[in-house]
Amino acid sequence: MDALKKRILQDGKCFEGGILKVDSFINHQMDPMLMHQIAQEFVNRFKGVKINKIVTIEASGIAPAIMVGFIMQLPVVFVKKKQPKTMENMLTTTVHSFTKDRDYTVCISNNFLTAEDHVLFVDDFLANGNASLGMIDLIKQAGATLSGMGFVIEKAFQNGGKILREKGVHVESLAIIEDLSNCEIKIR
């Protein structure tokens, strides 16, 4: 995804501790044209894979997931970080946020994640893989099938991608960051 890589180099900002800020075009202010290109690339990369539901975790994964769902004409469900009082048949797990350095109990209704589902998980970042591992746990609890995981940006210098691939997960990352040392963005 040359357009995404170019935008990361042009507008991305690096902070100490391996943090890449892309809030001017991905996860605060969004570029809908770029988001559409991102979604189309996910659709192309998962072509031929059995998928009947797109799942993400709030909040930054919602925009790319909705675009993928729109193009594929599939429902999109997002895992919530706060447990609503009205949620029925709740499945829960705990995930650790690398960026915010805190644990969240996340939840999804088993009404919207069932044993019949073949899930494509879409998220903005893959760092240590905590949200992804939490999603795998929720999918397992529901008896659903994980068809694949798509990430807008993967940080190769953290272990998330390695962990998921070693588990046999079909992972597609559109931009892979090799290194952020000295706040210099190096893309594979």
Automatic annotation (TrEMBL):
Its EC number is 2.4.2.22. SUPFAM superfamilies: PRTase-like (SSF53271). It is an enzyme of class 2 (transferase). It holds the Pfam family Pribosyltran. It catalyses: XMP + diphosphate = xanthine + 5-phospho-alpha-D-ribose 1-diphosphate. The keyword Cytoplasm applies. Keywords: Cytoplasm, Glycosyltransferase, Membrane, Purine salvage, Transferase, Transmembrane, Transmembrane helix. One of its GO terms (molecular function) is xanthine phosphoribosyltransferase activity. 5-phospho-alpha-D-ribose 1-diphosphate binds at residues 127-131. Coiled coil: none annotated. Pathway: Purine metabolism; XMP biosynthesis via salvage pathway; XMP from xanthine: step 1/1. Converts the preformed base xanthine, a product of nucleic acid breakdown, to xanthosine 5'-monophosphate (XMP), so it can be reused for RNA or DNA synthesis. Belongs to the purine/pyrimidine phosphoribosyltransferase family. Xpt subfamily. This is Xanthine phosphoribosyltransferase. It comes from Macellibacteroides fermentans. The lineage of its organism: Bacteria, Pseudomonadati, Bacteroidota, Bacteroidia, Bacteroidales.
